[in-house]
Design a protein that fits this description.
Blueprint lengths: L1 H4 L16 H4 L12 H8 L9 H4 L7 H9 L3 H8 L6 H7 L11 H4 L7 H15 L14 E5 L3 H12 L3 E5 L8 H4 L8 H13 L3 E3 L10 H7 L2 E4 L5 E2 L12 E3 H13 L4 H4 L9 E5 L3 H13 L3 E5 L11 H10 L2 E3 L2 E7 L5 E12 L5 E5 L5 E4 L2 E4 L3 E2 L3 H5 L26 E3 L2 H4 L4 H27 L1
Parallel strand pairs: 1-2, 1-4, 2-3, 4-16, 6-14, 7-8, 7-14, 8-9
Antiparallel strand pairs: 5-15, 10-11, 11-12, 11-13
Helix pairs in contact: 3-5, 3-9, 5-6, 6-9, 7-9, 10-20, 14-16, 16-17
Length: 477
């Protein structure tokens, strides 16, 4: 029976959930994809070839058992599929929405390599998890008994929340400290609603609270509470702050009004969606309505800014990126969505300066790709005499993020960092140079994907439990 449900990739074509038209979705910040129906989800899951060596799974940072939960979905055993899908992932409903599947699981699907079109893994993952919430299959966190040990987690992003989940399963007392007023980190304030609707995060945070996680929001370590207070209150501390310091440009005119950071722009838009009072948005400083917008950068944050500007009613939206389409770091699916919505990509172009006290234009140099560097990527080179000015009323810098100087901000001695400024920690145990202090997610590995932060947080929780087990064994001797 199971075999009849699978291996349908030769007779059934790849299909995604219905996508709203560009004109329709430009009018709001709702998610752009509909849900699969039961029949369609089972049909698409049944295209899986059930590989003996599943490359989809080996290229998934959380090592999802993808072929098995696809098979269960194809057989209509959705509750079992959900429980299997959530075993290695605290946020399967998030990853199903925002993971770059084209670069991870789906991009390494065997039937994709053979020309049949990848299984729509992300859409099925989203479907079975949303169904689980609707049907009440998502159970409260239960543990093996409350423990006396406590852990302080600094940062309520995906890494910190994933660790909190795993620690509460063991009965550890967990307090999460975060500088913002809502838990979720960039999942709440960095990623727009058309990719990740905010009730998806709020629902999961409430689940963690009901499971015994204590949240101390609006609590900035180093200002509202000292590092020594946090360290003294807990048996272990996990640093999961993420990276929020924006990379900047050094160019003439960079200080002009109307040149803003991507994180500020996206945060203002997301806060507005919550109904918050956002003076910088209302004044027009962080609002693209009626403006010619230029976004500088080619990653997923740039795509978020571009598509947000479209929805805010910009008169034109252009993306400047110094390499070509093939070599850009952002998801190709996001580029396609942006183009459908009216974004113009100006490939092989780089800013060299800005005009106007209130920004009026970006001085652009045309580029070509030269010889590969040590990483194998072709190095962009300026084409002499190709400069021109791109008109702009709002310029958004989406050049990536760097770590803050935590040791200095927090007044902590002995916390070693790498030459990039990230916290130096073992990539298996996540232990830092300070005893009982761990780090995970972007603050350890640099700006990366939500799914990598989830993996790191879960691994760090395991290492912390091993520390507690070791301390218990010593005490028992």
């Amino acid at each position: 029976m199971a075999k009849e449900k699978m291996l349908k990739f030769t007779t059934i074509q790849r299909s995604m959930p219905d996508k709203r038209t560009a004109d329709d979705r430009k009018a709001d910040f709702d998610e752009i994809y509909a849900e699969f129906s039961d029949e369609k989800a089972g049909e698409q899951a049944g295209r899986c070839s059930q590989c003996g060596v599943p490359y989809c799974q080996s290229h998934c940072p959380v090592n999802h058992n993808i072929p098995d939960w696809l098979r269960l979905t194809a057989e209509g055993r959705l509750e079992e599929a959900y429980f299997l899908a959530q075993e290695n992932n605290t946020f399967p409903e998030v990853c199903g929405r925002i993971c770059p599947q084209d670069r991870l699981c789906e991009g390494n699907c065997v039937i994709e390599q053979s020309g049949h079109g990848t299984v729509t893994i992300g859409a099925v993952e989203k479907y079975i998890t949303d169904t689980a919430w609707e049907q009440g299959w998502v159970k409260p966190i239960t543990n093996r008994g409350e423990r006396r040990e406590s852990v302080g987690i600094i940062g309520a992003g995906p890494g910190g929340l994933a660790a909190a989940h795993m620690l509460r399963l063991e009965g550890v007392q967990v307090t999460v400290y975060d500088r913002y007023d809502r838990a979720g980190g960039l999942m709440v304030y960095g990623i727009p609603g058309f990719k990740l609707e905010k009730d998806v995060i709020e629902r999961r945070v409430k689940w963690l609270e009901e499971g015994g996680v204590t949240f101390r929001m609006n609590c900035n370590v180093g200002t509202d509470i000292s590092w020594d207070e946090v360290r003294g209150a807990h048996d272990a501390v996990l640093i999961a702050t993420g990276v929020y310091k924006s990379r900047d440009l050094q160019a003439p005119g960079i200080g002009a009004r109307g040149i803003v950071r991507a994180i500020d722009y996206l945060t203002a838009s997301n806060r507005k969606s919550f109904g918050d009072d956002v003076p910088e948005f209302d004044s027009g400083e962080l609002n693209a309505e009626g403006k010619k917008v230029v976004v500088i950068g080619g990653g997923d944050t740039a795509m978020d800014c571009l598509r947000t500007a479209i929805r805010q009613g910009a008169t034109s939206v252009k993306c400047l990126y110094r390499r070509d389409r093939t070599n850009m770091p952002g998801s190709q699916r996001e580029v396609q969505n942006a183009e459908e919505e009216g974004v113009e990509f100006v490939w092989l172009s780089a800013p060299k300066g800005f005009t106007g006290e209130d920004v009026e234009g970006v001085m652009v140099s045309r580029m070509r790709l030269g010889q590969p560097d040590a990483t194998g990527r072709q190095v962009p080179e300026i084409i002499e005499g190709s400069d021109y000015v791109e008109e702009a009323d709002l310029v958004i810098k989406a050049l990536g993020f760097e770590p803050e100087e935590l040791a200095k901000l927090w007044g902590v001695d002995g916390l070693e960092v790498t030459r990039w400024g990230t916290v130096l920690a073992d990539f298996r145990t996540h232990e830092t140079s300070l005893p009982g202090v761990y780090a995970c997610g972007d603050i350890q590995r640099g700006a990366s994907l939500v799914v990598w932060a989830i993996r790191d947080g879960r691994e760090a929780a395991q290492a912390i439990m091993a520390q507690f087990a070791g301390a218990s064994a010593v005490a028992a001797e």
